[in-house]
Amino acid sequence: MAPSTLLRNTTLVMSAIAAALVQLAVVQSHQPLLPGMVQLAIVLVIAAGLFQRTRSRSGVASLGTGVTLTLALLAAIPFLAEPLSRWIASHGNPPEVQIALALRNLMVGLAALQSNVKAQRLACLASLFIVLFSLMWTVSGVAIGLLVAYTVLAMWWLLGAYWDGLAGKFAANTVRDLPKAPAIGLTLLGVVVLGLLPMLHASHVTTALAGFFPSSGGTGALDPFARSGVGDGDQLVAAQEDAMSFGPIESELFLESEMPSLYDVVDEFYNEPAKNKRRANVRAIPLSPSATQESRRRMATTKQAGREFTLIRQPPPTRKEQRDRSTHALFSVAGRVPLHLKLATFNRWDGHTLSYESPAPALDALTTMIDGSGRNWASLGDSRATDLFPTAERHILRILNLKTKRVPTPPHVSRLHVDQMRDARLFNRAADGGVDYGGDFVPQLTVLHLDSRPVKQQALRHAALHCGDAADSSEQAVPEPIAALARQWTSGVPRGWRQVSAICERLRNDYRHDRGAVPPQDCEDAAVHFLTEAGRGNDASFAASAALLVRSLGYETQVASGFYATPEKFDASSGQTAVTGDDVHFWAEVLTDDGVWLTLEPTPGYEVLYAHVSWGEQVAIAAGSALAWLMQRKWSVLAAIVLLVALCVLRRRVLAICAVLAWRYRWRTSDQRSSILWTFWLIEMRARLSGAPRPSEIPPGRWWEARLAAAPWKGQSPASAFLAAVQWALYADDGACPIAESIVDSSCRSVAQEIGTVLRKKKPSA
Amino acid sequence: MNTASTTIAVTLSPAHDPASAALGNCGFQPMIDALRSSLNCVLQGKNDVVEAVLACLLARGHLLFNDLPGLGKTTLAKALAHAVGGRFARVQCTPDLLPGDVTGFSVYNQKTREFEFNEGPVFCDVLLADEINRATPRTQSALFEAMAERQVTIDNRCYKLPETFFVIATQNPVDSHGAFPLPEAQRDRFALQLSIGYPDRQSALAMLRSDVGNVTHQPRLSEAVLSPSRLGELQRHVANVSVCDKIQRYLVDLAEATRERRELSLGLSPRGLLTWQRVAQARAHLQGRDFVTPDDVQEVARPVLSVRLMGEFESPDAIISDLLAGIPVPTFT
User: Nearest 5°: phi and psi at B117?
Assistant: First the structure.
């Protein structure tokens, strides 16, 4: 039963008001108008199509599968459009607005189908929800006006729906008319009562209801377009970025915890260095006072960042009681991870130990620069964009338990900022390129803003790598087994980054990372042992080996140590990654002609942070690779396209030929009933392929009788015998065919052969 | 109703199943042909109505004619009764007709000092209840037991009716003033509802020609072509016409569709569904087949459904067409 015209019109206007309200709410929450309007236009076009299609079929729209799918599509549009909007127009809607828009679209679709009473009622229900949704976001004069109009119509609708329900129970000749005067009076009374409530206590009502409606409010960590909601989200953001903020980190400030120095962290992770008995004996000889002083000075230096690192370590002890203890974060990182944070570098290798030998041990003071917002930055390196370093990236480090004067820095760091820092001379440039804090150690809870330029992965293959000086390479001769291995692994690979990449890939694929694997103390060269014998080792072994392998090819390399902020510890709710003592890591670096050290990650399981690639670039890269792949096989691709086009154009004919072939094969191998059924299948299939299939509700006998009888048969028409046989094969449970086998055979063959002619003939009217 | 008048020419194979052979040319076929031709003689140009009447007879159902006066309802009923060879009785229903007038009553015999039962017109083989909607509901109800169970209970005594008891009721759809519409329960006891309709031009001319010289306007009836016992055998035979699972699922789908339509306040009852299958079996038998096809189901759908579907609709034909169009015909599955 279709709803009355009065109800339909009321539903339409109610839906329009609800749509206007939600649009008003979206616009008033500072969203641009155009994308919303484009989406609305698309939705209206689809709804109009829906209306037209269902209208032309019958008086009452049926909610079939196609209609349901279209409604689902309408509801999905906001979610589908959201990534596009964020990518193209750089603005988005928070989740609750997307939900409201999805509901709006569904309502518009249902309103288009309102000749169906179910759809009409659902449209009204959806409009009510949308109005309530919208009023939670915006309370303005226009919104209140629309609400009043909606209330009037809603009451009118309820009366009309009740009246329609009553009408069905009356005798057929009863005159049906809505008592308009009482209805209008009741509606107005309702409006006065209900309309005054929100107007008198608008703030109370909306405030009370706000708790029942979803909001995306919060830190903005998950969704940059989130609307501010309940709570102190802004304060949390400030605390994360502002070192002076106090509130949210209150518990951490007064936390009493053991704060290991960096040196302790490294030793705790890689275990104590193995005691060299020979060296201990030498130390037993009394030293002169000057030598003693030298020794003390050296100890102090060592404590700062670990200037030396020997690969010969003690095996890891079993620390059962400490396994279960939760580890305190040394510092936390906000920003993209994985991230290598460098603390120390090593450029010398004596077979067991990595060390650093500075060519120019001068401590440079850093220069201060002021950015657009008046903040002071310490300039650490080149901040210009190049092909290799196209985009800038910011990471924020909050120092928690790390007691060191060395600042952990990401690769290719360009500048450093600390809140309230007036002078960049607070920091010094160390001899190895690292950055040291001017005082004893970086104060706890300092928030360091570090700008860097991650390397672009696609540009790496064109990077010009610096080849070391001949004198330098002779001084740091790489053991021959390593050099031989490097030559073997890179044979046929063009010089440059590809060689370096090949070595890293080989190490990552063929060697096993094992923290507990340590070289024997009596081995000649730990790296050679790792590469040629052990096949497993810790990340320091990987890093040292990679540096030596690459160095043997003539490139300048060094080993870096520091921390690896792993994505596994990324906390989505805070947007931060905790870095603990377990994240100490070694990696290798290779020098470019521009004097930039590029990160090499030879250890399996560790990744390098590359420059962010936008969706557009990713699509372009994928398209480029696909095009290249196609161009390599252009003739095959061309042939495939021609074949596909031909198949597409001639698909009906090809399928018809396949059907005939299938029938011929089956005809020979089947019994009588199957043969008849296969012939029937063939004519049904041919009819479908010719674009005139038998309607599913018409029995085969009646449909084919007229068509087969009208065909020009040579001799007696096989139609009646064939159709009798088909009906027997389809619907008789058992028993033999009532028609002689020879007649069945000949009629089936005749029909199968002439079906093309039958279908080409002008179709008789059904 | 558009019944296919052309039967499919079949050639029996040598390896034909004896059971199915007994069906088509089993001795019943001449009787059916004779029955068909005798009915066609009295009702010219109405092959489809005659086929439906035959199907109803073979399906052991009762028939309701819903048509205007003078279209040949009574003539057809009398011809049918005559052809079947049984007793024929006619009840002209009026508002003052009592149940006892239909079923019979007991009278005290002073000589024997016992109550003697006087059989009413219901004790016959073919009963014509003319203008049944003129009788009061009480009298209409008196026919319930006779139609459904083929027995009559009077004074706590049960009297059996013949196995082939067949009711043909008529009602006039136009003059409904002072009429008592048949309740749903009684409508459901009829297998089919038919309308004869006006004859076409050729049939009307033939009718006029044959009537010249016929003083009483009564059609000349031929000899009885069946006996009630042979009719009983024929009905039992029809009940054995096979209905495959596909067709039964198709019937159930259609029945469920009638119950889901909003326009229909009363869908098809299980008794109605059984009747539909039986009438389809009869139609298949009349077509010379020993299995039911979707054509049979669709052909008998209108008379079977129009008697039992209730609701707010303009024309039952449109609803039934819509129902049939909504359910795909089973073919391979």
Answer: -90, 125
Amino acid (one-letter) located at A155: M
* Closest Cβ–Cβ partner in B13, B292, B332 for A737: B13
Of A48-52, A60-64, A685-689, B289-293, minimum mean pLDDT range:
A60-64
DSSP codes joined into one string, A663-702: HHHHHHHS-HHHHHHHHHHHHHHHHHHTT-PPPTTS-HHH
Lookup: tokens for A573: 């709710």
Question: Which is more confident, B222 or A244?
Answer: B222
* A447 membership: H or E segment, kind and range: strand A447-452
**What are the tokens at A432?**
């190895």
* Average pLDDT of the residues of chain B: 83
> What is residue B153's three-state secondary structure?
strand
Residues of chain B whose C-beta is under 8 A from some C-beta in A? 4, 8-17, 19-20, 24, 242, 244, 246-247, 262-263, 289-295, 298, 312, 324-329, 331-332
Instruction: Give the separation between CA A389 and CA A463, rounded to whole angstroms.
Output: 11
| CA–CA separation, B256 and B268 (whole Å) | 8
Q: What is the ipTM score, two decimals?
A: 0.81
Rounded to a whole number, what is the distance in Å from the CA of B99 to chain A's nearest CA?
Answer: 31
Query: Whole-structure pTM over 0.90, yes or no?
Result: no
In the predicted structure, residue A547 carries a pLDDT above the cut 70: yes
Please tell me the predicted confidence (pLDDT) of residue B22: 38
Q: Do B15 and A736 touch (CB under 8 A)?
A: yes
Name every chain B residue with its beta carbon within 8 A of the beta carbon of A684. 331
**Please, which pLDDT band fits residue B125 given cuts at 50, 70 and 90?**
confident
CB proximity list for A539: less than 8 A, separation 6 or greater: A513, A515, A585, A586, A587, A603, A606
Q: Which two tokens stand for residue A386?
A: 């190049």
The CA angle A515-A520-A525, to the nearest 5 degrees, is 100
Mean pLDDT across chain A, nearest whole number? Answer: 78
Closest CA to B284 of B36, B54, B83, B49: B54
What tokens appear for B209 in the block? 């020609």
Q: Does the structure show a pLDDT above 80 at A524? A: yes
The alpha carbon of residue A668 is apart from the nearest alpha carbon of chain B, in Å, by 20
Which among A696, A738, A741 is the nearest to B10, CB-wise?
A738
A-B contacts (CB, under 8 Å):
90
Which 8-state DSSP code applies to residue A467? B
Q: What is the DSSP string of B228-259?
A: HHHHHHHHHHHTTSB--HHHHHHHHHHHHHHH
Instruction: Summarize pLDDT for B159-171 with one digit per residue, the tens.
Output: 999 888 989 898 8
Give the end-to-end CA distance of chain A in Å, rounded to a whole number.
30
Query: B293: which chain A residues are within 8 Å (Cβ-Cβ)?
Result: 699, 701, 727, 730-731
A584 has which bridge partners?
Answer: A563
- Alpha carbon separation from A708 to A655, A660, A719, A760, B92 (Å, rounded): 22, 18, 6, 12, 50
Of all residues in chain B, the one with the smallest CA distance to A171 is B312
**Measured distance CA(A662)–CA(A659) in Å, rounded:** 5
Which residue, chain included where needed, has tokens 């003078």? Answer: B70
B318 C-beta neighbours (distance < 10 Å), count? 11
Verify whether the Cβ–Cβ distance A720 to B293 is below 8 Å: no
Would the pLDDT of B223 be above 50? yes
> How far does Cα A441 stand from its chain's mean position?
39
Higher-pLDDT residue of B8, A57: A57
Distance CA B332, CA B226 (A): 40
The answer, yes or no, to whether residue B4 has pLDDT greater than 50, is no
What the block records as the tokens of A464 is 């010009």
Characterize the bridge pairing of strands B126-130 and A353-355. unpaired
Parallel, antiparallel or unpaired: strands A376-379 and A413-418: antiparallel
Of chain A, the percentage scoring pLDDT greater than 70 comes to: 78
Q: CB B327 to CB A736 under 8 A?
A: no
**Residue from B295, B314, B324 whose CB has the most chain A CBs within 10 Å, to mutate:** B295
